[in-house]
Structures are given as C-alpha cells and as structure tokens.
Amino acid sequence: MTIPALREIRRLFKQARITLWTKPDLRDLFTEVDFIDDVLLAPRASWRQTVAAIRSRSFDVAILFQNAFRPALEIYAARVPIRCGYRTDGRGFLLTHAIRLDPELKHQHQVFSYLNLVSAFGQALTGQTWVDLNSPNQILPLSDERRKEGLAFLAEQGVDLNKRLVVVNPGATNSRAKQWLPERFAAVADQLLARGDTNVVFIGANEEVPLAQQIAAPMRRQPILLTGQTTLRELVSILSCAQLLISNDTGPAHIGAAVGVPTLTIFGPTEHFATRPFSERATVIRQPVWCSPCMLRDCPIDHRCMT
Q1: What is the pLDDT of residue 45?
Q2: Predicted pLDDT at 209
Q3: What span, in angstroms and rounded, lies between the C-alpha atoms of 43 and 26?
Q4: What are the phi and psi torsion angles at 54 (to 5°)?
Q5: Closest Cα partner for 60 from 90, 94, 17?
Q6: Cβ(32)–Cβ(51) under 8 Å?
Q7: Which one, of 34, 59, 83, 2, lies nearest residue 258 by Cα?
Q8: 26-52 tens-digit pLDDT
C-alpha cells in the first residue's frame, strides 16, 4: 500500500537516492521497481544494531510510514537530520516534521494516508504541494522475464499452461479469525476444477501446509499444492500469470492486486474499507454483521462474519 507514496517521493525528488527500509522477507517485491534505488533490510537484531545500520548510511531524510514509536526513536538515535512522520503514539518530539494525522483519513484507504504524509512533508520542505492524490498508481512493475519465470515454475509443478490459472490462498498466518472455512474453499476449488479448463493452485506459508492438505483431502478433484514451496520472488511471478486470485485478507491478496491480477478477497474481522487490496480489479467479499470489524485474532463466539 506504500507504492503510490513511494512513486510520489521519486517524482518530487528526482535526483535523490531513495532507500526503502523494510523487512528482509519483503525485499524481493522491489527488485524491478524504478522508484527506489536501494533496500535497507531491517535486521532481526537488537535496537543498537538497527540504529547502527541506519547511521552507517548517512541518510539526509527519513520518512516514516509506520505510526509506531520505535521507528521514530531509531531514526532519531541514528541522527538522521530530517525526520518526517505522523504525530502519533507520543513520538512527535522525535520528529523534525511531525505531521498531524487528519481524522478524515481514517475514513479513507490507507494509501491516501501515506500520500497525505508525503504531500504534507513536501509542502513543509518546499512550500509547495505537488503530490497527486487523485489517481494513485499501485501497480508493481514486473518484467516479461519474471512472468516467464512464473510460467516455467508452474510447468515444472505440473500445471497445464493451456488452461486458465486460479490461485487460492486459504490461510492467514497472523489470524485464525481471518480464515474462511476450509470446506468452503474446498467447494469453490472443486467447482472450478469441474469446468475442465481451469488449474487450481494453492499457495501459502510453510505453517499453512496442514491447512492446505485439510482442504484438499475431501475434494473430488485435486488441486496443485504449492503451499510452503515458493519463495516470495516465485510467488510474485506465479501471481503475475494467474487469471484470478482468491484469498483471505492477507499479504498475497495485496501482491496479486499490485501485479494486476483480478483478486477476490474475503474479509471478516478486519476493516475492509481502509486496508482492502487497492486495485480496480480487486473485489471484496464480506458478510456484514454487527460485530465486524472486531480486529480479533480468534473469534470468541461463532465466527459469523466468515460463515
């Protein structure tokens, strides 16, 4: 969801060297983009090591999309001269440009919160606002070579490339409450396979292998299980080849939308309005119930939002 804001930073500061500070497992998302120059991996290490890694780069400016206290403290301790972020979580005193978070942004998609931050920073720094808030570009560019990699990988796994490809992501590693029922995924996958012209491929993390096996076990026709068998780079390449992605509210749904795949995302306990996959080709499926969004990881009642 930060892609449009990163594009605007590049447009505003054409001559700057832009480094993205992110988690190690997200690095492969940005190998072919033209709006950043480098990736700094946030180490799974101590606070001191993180600060040292940032300080070693001698950055002039840091723009924080995260609203938490710790990232602001880290860039302050790393002595980055210009530090911009929202004035949230009691961290305003650590920032040189502490931007007020407009309450109205809570009623818009998160993409616009990030864009507003870049816009406010640009205005404070230069006295002018040039950020395009009307037509955010969320597309993650991929080369033809990457798509060919995806097709080759799928062929090696037994996927018939002459058929349509539907990718199913039935897990949600950070929340059981966000998972649609296994039997529902099985029923949908069976109906797709019954058409005879469609491949169904399951994806997911290593810890979701038992879930994928549970879904596939009672099915009349078997999908191809790639759960736990792909790197992030391979996953992105696979999704770029798909004609449809069906997913719970989790990372692959956003990746699918970013590479332009028609995406169906099933929402239950989470807020769909602000955090849905941002794409004209993305559709939200949800059952409106009084207790949603609860933002809980486990449902304390009957999981009615997902049944």
Answers
A1: 64
A2: 96
A3: 12
A4: -70, -45
A5: 17
A6: no
A7: 2
A8: 888 888 888 999 988 876 667 888 899
